[in-house]
Specification:
3-stranded antiparallel sheet, 8 helices, Rossmann fold, 26% strand, 8-stranded mixed sheet
């Protein structure tokens, strides 16, 4: 595995050497991830309203695994509050072309994770890294170490439909393939009925391609100083008589 994927800007912010873009701002990465992906997909409410035993999240770009860890953390909180709920298991599918080394992963986690329960989950991830597959009673993680354009084929092979998408590639200007029309068309096909998405970007390139794939797309207030982000859902298919 490549042991040089990250450089640290002023020893504070992790930057990808492949895309010259930040993974996130270490000052408020957890709050931003929660706002964009957990709140943007209304996961707390959707867990409660879910009528199946498994809820499935898909993510474009695993990175440090922070999105997964926070989703896992929120799911465990949900289970603690609703122990008899029909929803019992969280599935998380992600893809990563340039996986971080264990040292890089651990360094990023230590820099941003202070909350004890979240740190414990991060330790489990570190202990199993690089984990193409991890599973326990509450959660299943599958990470495909491959090009993003192979993601839908992997999901199709797993017979998987996604309830909520975390679209989290690097900036569309730095990594346009992860926001392309062909990608979103293929991922739309692997989205469950009324499945949702959230993403930090509001770039017209991404918005246009999400719309062309068939998603209903809305602009939403961005996190912090960021003016806008995008959220949306899979539109119901019209029935022709």
């Amino acid at each position: 595995m490549n042991t040089n994927n990250v450089v640290w800007n002023n020893s504070v912010t992790p930057i990808s050497i492949h895309f010259d873009d930040v993974y996130f701002n270490t000052d408020d990465a957890i709050a931003e991830t929660t706002y964009v992906f957990i709140d943007g997909n209304h996961l707390s409410e959707r867990f409660i309203a879910h009528t199946k035993s498994t809820f499935t999240i898909g993510e474009t770009g695993f990175g440090s695994g922070l999105n997964f860890l926070i989703a896992w953390h929120y799911f465990l909180q949900f289970k603690q509050q609703h122990p008899n709920h029909v929803l019992k298991h969280l599935q998380f599918f992600s893809i990563e072309k340039y996986p971080l080394s264990l040292t890089e992963l651990t360094t990023i986690h230590r820099a941003i994770i202070q909350e004890v329960n979240l740190a414990n989950l991060a330790q489990i991830l570190q202990n199993n890294w690089p984990c193409a597959h991890y599973q326990n009673e509450q959660v299943t993680l599958n990470v495909y170490f491959a090009d993003i354009m192979l993601f839908s084929a992997h999901l199709k092979q797993s017979n998987t439909l996604i309830d909520a998408w975390f679209f989290d590639g690097f900036s569309p200007t730095k990594n346009p393939e992860m926001w392309s029309a062909p990608l979103f068309h293929s991922l739309y096909a692997q989205t469950a009925k009324s499945g949702t998405f959230a993403t930090f970007t509001a770039a017209s390139y991404a918005r246009r391609n999400l719309l062309s794939a068939g998603f209903e797309v809305y602009k939403h207030k961005g996190y912090g100083k960021k003016r806008e982000m995008l959220i949306g859902y899979k539109k119901p298919q019209s029935v022709e008589c």
